[in-house]
Design goal:
It is a single chain. It contains 17 helices and 12 strands. By secondary structure, it is α/β, with parallel strands linked by helices. It has 3 domains: about 70 residues; about 190 residues, Rossmann fold (3-Layer(aba) Sandwich), CATH 3.40.50; about 55 residues, Arc Repressor Mutant, subunit A (Orthogonal Bundle), CATH 1.10.10.10.
């Protein structure tokens, strides 16, 4: 066991310290074990804590056992990296406040990653969902690592689309990375799939940390810091996704945005970013060319897929399907076909991967 990590993890469990003070302690004492042993009212005062926080810190330290806190690290097969470790992500090491301790589930191998963050609203429109899936699949198929935050909406769509493309994805949490702390709890299964398929679930917070509100703005700087660029798919005017974009600019990362319908509130954020100078993106080719990333596969793999209609019914349906959801009844009327025939044909087309059921008997064309 690495004693420095054991004591670093224990110090990180003291809620009153935080990233900057933990870094200052390491710098001042040279290692976390010495910092733990030398932690005193005077040291805490030098770190800028007020009297209540100092008392709280001392009381927390008295109740903690570094060795006992380390046991869950081994149980959950968690790797802890510090900025001086060779395995620590190089891009993350460059940001103004790199995590002094990075908790990692999954193989901690980041140096060959070309990573792009994909962020957005928790309530995407069908338009946002469709284009997020399409762009992410295209990027993942070219070997790009997709980074996001495991939240509802665009985050989960980005992770899932990467897995469907057999790509690598990294989820950055604002909580502990143990199964009891993952947020939202309903995404525990998704987190496990990410790890099983060669990706990672990471956090700067120790195991058992609850998803407190103030953790998420801090988490956003890691999402952007991990990546060469941030792509905002859909976001409202005031949202965590725009905070991530701001972090990206502060870290000298590129910001990309998918343009949206001006009548949709979810499009307000990306459209505003574009007005402010963010690069307008409509496909993976745009992203890769902006970053000067060579394509790993044939260029046509990133182009719009053209499906061959297998029947005259499919041909009629494909003619009238777009990226906007259309109800079966409306589609049947447009195609001049019986609703039952259209429904049956759509079911077969969905099995072939030509269309997608958006729910409530509404379908879109997959591109």
């Amino acid at each position: 066991m690495d004693r420095d990590l054991i004591y670093g993890n224990a110090l990180n469990t003291i809620s009153t310290l935080g990233v900057k003070r933990l870094t200052e302690l390491k710098t001042r004492f040279g290692d976390f074990e010495t910092a733990w042993n030398e932690l005193s009212e005077r040291v805490l005062s030098d770190l800028g804590l007020d009297n209540d926080a100092i008392t709280n810190s001392i009381e927390q330290r008295k109740k903690l056992s570094p060795e006992e806190l380390w046991e869950p690290i081994e149980t959950h097969k968690v790797t802890i990296l510090t900025p001086t470790d060779a395995s620590y992500p190089l891009a993350l090491r460059e940001i103004p406040t790199p995590p002094p301790l990075l908790y990692v589930r999954g193989a901690a191998d980041f140096h060959n990653d070309v990573a792009i963050a994909v962020v957005g609203t928790r309530t995407p429109s069908p338009y946002g969902r469709i284009h997020c899936e399409r762009i992410v699949r295209e990027l993942a198929s070219q070997g790009v690592t997709i980074v996001s935050g495991l939240a509802y909406g665009i985050d989960a769509i980005a992770h899932q689309a990467t897995l469907e493309a057999a790509g690598r994805t990294i989820a950055v949490l604002g909580s502990g990375i143990d199964s009891q702390s993952i947020y939202p709890p309903s995404h525990n299964g998704l987190a496990e799939k990410i790890i099983e398929r060669g990706g990672n679930v990471i956090s700067e917070y120790p195991l058992g940390t609850a998803p407190l509100r103030h953790h998420f703005p801090a988490r956003n700087r890691i999402i952007s810091g991990f990546s060469k660029a941030v792509l905002v798919v859909e976001a409202r005017e005031k949202s965590g996704a725009l905070l991530t974009a701001r972090d990206a600019l502060d870290q000298n990362r590129d910001v990309f945005a998918l343009p949206g319908d001006v009548n949709r509130p979810q499009a307000a954020g990306p459209n505003r970013l574009i007005r402010m100078g963010a690069k307008l993106i409509i496909n993976a080719t745009d992203v890769l060319s902006e970053l000067n990333v060579p394509l790993a596969k044939a260029q046509q793999a990133l182009g719009e897929r053209t499906f061959q209609a297998d029947t005259k019914e499919e041909a009629a349906i494909l003619t009238h399907l777009t990226d906007e959801p259309i109800h079966v009844d409306e589609l049947a009327e447009a195609c001049a076909l019986p609703a039952a025939s259209v429904t049956a044909t759509l079911t077969l087309m969905e099995m072939k991967g030509k269309v997608k059921n958006m729910g409530a008997m509404q379908y879109v064309r997959i591109r």
